Structures are given as C-alpha cells and as structure tokens.
Sequence to fold (390 residues):
Amino acid sequence: MSAPTASPKPTAPFLPFTRPTIDDETIAGVVEVLRSGWITSGPKVKEFEAKLSEFFGGRPVRAFNSGTCTMEIALRIAGIGPGHEVITTPLSWVATSNVILEVGARPVFVDIDPVTRNIDLSRIEAAITPATRAIIPVDLAGQPVDRDRLYAIAKKHNLRVIEDAAQAIGTTWAGKRIGSFGDFVSFSFHPNKNITTIEGGCLVLNNEAEAKLAEQYRLQGVVRSGTDGMEVEVVGGKFNLTDVAARVGLGQLPHLEEFNSQRRELARTYFELFGTPAARALGLRLPPADFTNSNWHMFQVVLPEEKLSIKRAEVMTQLQAAGIGNQVHYPAIHLFSIYRKLGWKPGDFPHAEYAGRNILTLPLFPGMTRADVTRVVETLISILQANLQS
Ligand SMILES: Cc1ncc(COP(=O)(O)O)c(C=O)c1O
Fold:
C-alpha cells in the first residue's frame, strides 16, 4: 500500500528559495557606468576593492569574476600543484574541490560534523600526510568553521589555509568578521549570495606581494610598466571583474548588515515555528541556532530519511507544487563520477553522504515575511506528516 501524499495547493504567489535585492540607486549607477564609455575593469573595480578592504579591516583585497577562480589563484600563489594534497570537505559546492584538481593537486576529503555540517576539525590531523600543503574549509550556509581550532592545526603542521567563505560574507568569529583575519579568504558574489555582483568574487590576501601576483593570475599574467612596457611571468587566466558588476557590488555592500539582520530574524522565526511539539516529533534536523556568528546565508534542514516513505526529490516536488521554491546544497562531492574515478566510493564519508541525500534549502532572503516562513514550515510539516513510514 502506498503512503498517502499531501497535495497542498499554492495559496500565495510563488516563493523562491532566494532572490537578490537590488535598489533603484544601484540600477541607476549601473546605467551611469554603461553610459560612461568604460564598462570593463576600471575605476569601479578599484573603488569596490577599496571598500571591501575597508570592510575586511584594511587587508589587501582583489575582485574577480567568480569566487571559484579566487580559490584557484590562492592555490597557485601558495605554490600548490602536482604532488600536493589539499584537505577539504565533501559537503560543498563542487567548485571547492574542483579548484584543487584544476591546479593538479589531490583533494583529501574529511567527513563533516553532522551538527555544524562543516568539516569535522577533529578528523583533520589524521588526514595530514607529508604531501599536505593546505586546508580549504567551507562555512556552509554562513555557519563558520571554528577559526581558533582551524588555525591551530594549520600552524602546527605548517599548512596554508584557503578559507572558502563564499557563503560567509558578514559572518563573524570571536567578534571579528571572517576575512578580516586569517590566511587567504575567498568570497563569492553569485546572485544567491548575501550580496551580489551578478557573478563575481573577491580574495582577501596577506600582503601587497600576494595581491600583485593575484592581479597577474587574474589577467593573463600581464604586468605593465612605463608607457608601453609589458611582461608576462606567470600563466594567468581571464578572471577580471567588469566595472558594471563592480557597480552592483558597490550598491550592495552598504546594505549587507541590514540584509544579514533580516536573514537572522527570519531564521529565528524558522526555529520558533519548527520548535512546536508536532514539528519536533518529525525528527527534522535543524541547523545550529547560531545568532551570534552566522550570516544566515541559507536555512537548511536535513530530512529524517529513516522515518519517511518518500525521498527528498518527492518532498521537493510537493513543496514546489505548493508554490515554495527549494534547492539542494549540496550532494556529497566524492560521489560525483569524476571523483569516483579517482577512487572515492559510497560509505567513505557517511555524515556527508547522509546530508548529501537529505539536506534541503528552504526559502530565506531579505524581504521575506513571517507569513512566508509560516507557510513554508506548515507546508513542509504537512508533507512530512503525510509521508511518515507506518
Ligand atoms: C561554498 C562555495 N564555494 C565556492 C563557490 C563558488 O563561487 P562562484 O559561483 O562565485 O564561482 C560557491 C558559490 O556558489 C560556494 O557556495
């Protein structure tokens, strides 16, 4: 006998799982750049970098056309390549480990802590070998990896750290902004992120020498000098941000704190509504209730696989049918076929695999209301209640 299915009907307009907030002043500013005669990398990129540097406590910052390339460039600056290993998490956007392969090094995955959903720091030391050169931790959903423990391990083993803080702009650790301290710190400004440049990213570096190298890797390795001098010393790529994109970022950055506090309040509402006895009985796993550090980039639940008669895909379809956007961030990386070909297999990282099968991102973005959150929670609870194993 098949389990009964809930068929909630949309009662309100479609609620996406995320949506950028771009104000009219920013749109007018973009139009101005478009009319200015200079639309690719130029004064707006420089201005954006200066504002970012201010935001990150004066550290050198360079802007790029993606978050992905910033991590690849950090690896290159650190001299990491063939024969080297880089420790990272299997629960992230696949960019995190693809960049390790891109530079010719080998990713070494360490399972996640099922509570934080971030790399389990207590397992890192066991994964270090003589070939290990760096750690790439990820602050999934904006929930920070413990920087004190992370940097203690890195220091002890003389490892570089490339923080994949793609999702963590505005997140703090011990009262300090992520990016304002540490080694390399990478951010993404993809439209889903807490602030956007449409596509783009930035890298916080340790000193001007690294920043100069980052500029070379950003644009074909080119260094200009004098009136007509040009030299190429490294194989760079084509990773420069446009002034149009930078102008979007300049319009976003001043709103970050306000966006993040709206996200925080919405997250509080999720906890309140998921805290009822009926909701708790379902065994849904909520994220850590962190209202100090997290920028609440996403609100993700992990479905109780063992209690349900349907799979996540069916839950997603039913939410969608009820007008509620939702997404998966992310399947476990080591189970993608290119990674399986490198030797990983099911069972290698059970916590990441469980999360990879069952994690679900619910709507969360500035501008959402308490009524929106109520609708999401009530709909999800009704879908789960209707599909419990008998
Ligand atoms: C955890 C994580 N790492 C890396 C990236 C890559 O950023 P981008 O899409 O800007 O290249 C993203 C963005 O999607 C991300 O969420």
